[in-house]
Amino acid sequence: MVGAGLRAAARRWLLCGGHGGPRAASSSPSCPGCGPPGPGAHCPGAPRSAPAQAPAGGADLSAHLWARYQDMRRLVHDLLPPEVCSLLNPAAIYANNEISLRDVEVYGFDYDYTLAQYADALHPEIFSAARDILIEHYKSLLMKIDAFHYVQLGTAYRGLQPVPDEEVIELYGGTQHIPLYQMSGFYGKGPSIKQFMDIFSLPEMALLSCVVDYFLGHSLEFDQAHLYKDVTDAIRDVHVKGLMYQWIEQNMEKYILRGDETFAVLSRLVAHGKQLFLITNSPFSFVDKGMRHMVGPDWRQLFDVVIVQADKPSFFTDRRKPFRKLDEKGSLQWDRITRLEKGKIYRQGNLFDFLRLTEWRGPRVLYFGDHLYSDLADLMLRHGWRTGAIIPELEREIRIINTEQYMHSLTWQQALTGLLERMQTYQDAESRQVLAAWMKERQELRCITKALFNAQFGSIFRTFHNPTYFSRRLVRFSDLYMASLSCLLNYRVDFTFYPRRTPLQHEAPLWMDQLCTGCMKTPFLGDMAHIR
């Protein structure tokens, strides 16, 4: 069984028990040209000065290329003063689609990791309990895939050990590409690939890696399909047996974060005349205790409808399951449900009855959840609701993006890539050596930038320059995304979110250095006239 579409891939958990976090990126890269650029920084072999005009060939051409390289470094350094960093706000809301909150009349919420944000301390608990369950009672890779179904080389692991790039390519028939039929399940499950798409997947990925590593280290035979099923069942049992609920209920101060901010968001929406509802897979007793902790004993008065144990995502597609009412003790009642009453608790049901009873339809409904498939996909694609994705990792990633090291590394990487594209028209022996040195430096830069986020897997949003498989789904299934629900407090309830117009490839033919210097020429196009 192959793990794919990693979402939070191995940030703190890759070593057994979650004790081995990502290694810090080296501050002394092997190639001096890979560090933050400065006027004196250069790649090995680069001359300090060179002719400014392109000569006829030979060594003079090589010097000309290195002169362009040095000019580019100085340009990048001058373009990035220290104050250019910290431009992104981790508490901001980011828009994939234009949406005005003025048009939203009804707000819906998932519970776990949406209304209730959990501390990272919960992950080792789940890992340990599932490990114990597994003890009582394979081509097996964990890897990261981009939006075009290509494996990001350097991110494939068997157990806790990295798999050489050559072996990964050989396993997939001489290519990095994963065929569509293996990944095409609507809810993220293909015939041989499972996408890990939410925070709850972290302990499962960690346990799977550790067990595979143990079997391989002790030369034990195993069937990868059986192992995957056993690990998944063990993680499921942690939830089914209520162990996770017990840990959180016993120490809510430790595990539940930002409860006061959740209360502030809900109160503010109600004060502005918005209708609220809750649809969660968690049981009532657990949700009740958590909401009492965050909001107070009268939390149900904030919601027009509360549905527990909804069994998402089948809640959105299965018309057969009726709503059942719960009494104050959480016991099921036998009443036939003809309307959904404020202050009452309902169990299971289905979205079609929900729409019929509430008449909450289309873009005037905005629903927030943390799982792209289980919470958001059906609502956006089948029912036209607006959706908001809660991505807790976003806050940390933005803080890394705001660092001077990341900004300089990425900007120089982009400038160097543009230089490579334009200078590849020089194909004499000396020039090819220069281009090869630049390619090596570019690859090292990419690895450094990746390691800033996570030494094993990098950013959850990027596989080097391409979006990840997760990132593409995030854009497809959510109108808005943010680190936590509390980000709503930074905006008025009639605020309009506008997505940034990001240029398509044919709309932005020039690289950063050409735009910044006002040079609108592309000198290599004449040499590439044969493609017309």
UniProtKB/TrEMBL annotation:
GMP binds at D112. Mg(2+) binds at D110, D370. The keyword Hydrolase applies. The active site is at D110, D112. Its cofactor is Mg(2+). GO terms for molecular function: 5'-nucleotidase activity; metal ion binding. InterPro entries: HAD-like_sf (IPR036412), HAD-SF_hydro_IG_5-nucl (IPR008380), HAD_sf (IPR023214), Pur_nucleotidase (IPR016695). Keywords: Hydrolase, Magnesium, Metal-binding. Binds 1 Mg(2+) ion per subunit. Belongs to the 5'(3')-deoxyribonucleotidase family. PANTHER family: 5'-NUCLEOTIDASE DOMAIN-CONTAINING, 5'-NUCLEOTIDASE DOMAIN-CONTAINING PROTEIN 2. This is 5'-nucleotidase domain containing 2. It comes from Pongo abelii.
